[in-house]
């Protein structure tokens, strides 16, 4: 049970965020000053001075800790490494770019002390581009219509998790980690606090469109096998039309006059293109799942750690 002696872990994945470390800690440290806390930065293979910037603070303050990966392994892996390392009675994960306001931490802890095992920070308003908002909205709708586990809408990876939830996450053997889904999967009691998501203070997003699409596909494939069913239905649907076309072609060949034989190439062309498209699509869907199985089977290490500071 949470009490005044509880240890609060804060996990912050960082990738090329050198300019954000100081502003973030300037805000964060006063907030956690009176709490028993640790701040774990997971440096996801940054190419800039992110690591040395964090080390400067870690030298002065034992509660600032650092894990550095050998190379970039991705945001979800960095978060997973942080969860594994965190010793807290609860663990808060947040971005380094101050899009997730540290002021909210106190409110999240209040909710946790009331007994909620998960406290989501929900983005009520987003001061972000129209494109980001619309793609996010399509993504949440799509994944929720497909997934058996309801994925909370408009909550990112800014959340508080009780130790029980973190322990569960650490036990998941899967390599592909769509944490938003895995967190919801356990069915722990949850509540949310709301905030307005601002623009990043320094640097650019590390989630361009291509990465967002991959992230979305990963989430869908990890949490639903419905696309495979859709492929089957598409197969039934097109076979039905194929059968009609076949019957018509045979009828035409045997029951209509000879000069009809050579016409009809438009129908042929349309049919080839249509069935070709459907076949590629369904093979693609199956391929996504096979790719996932292949990666799991390979069982390579999920990330490699270069160094740890204060840990
Ligand atoms: N991040 C990371 N590894 C990556 C990409 C991002 O550790 O490969 C970190 C990044 O430094 C930031 C957080 O994950 O602290 C969220 O990334 P970003 O702000 O670029 O995403 P957005 O807020 O635009 O969705
Ligand atoms: Mg961000």
From TrEMBL:
Keywords: Cell membrane, Glycosyltransferase, Membrane, Transferase, Transmembrane, Transmembrane helix. Coiled coil: none annotated. Its main location: membrane. Signal peptide: none annotated. It is found in: Cell membrane. The chain crosses the membrane at residues 230-251, 263-290. Residues 9-167 form the Glycosyltransferase 2-like domain. It comes from the Bacteria. GO terms for molecular function: glycosyltransferase activity. One of its GO terms (cellular component) is plasma membrane. InterPro entries: Glyco_trans_2-like (IPR001173), Glycosyltransferase_2 (IPR050256), Nucleotide-diphossugar_trans (IPR029044). Pfam families: Glycos_transf_2. It is a multi-pass membrane protein. Belongs to the glycosyltransferase 2 family. GtrB subfamily. This is Glycosyltransferase 2-like domain-containing protein. It comes from Candidatus Roizmanbacteria bacterium RIFCSPLOWO2_02_FULL_36_11.
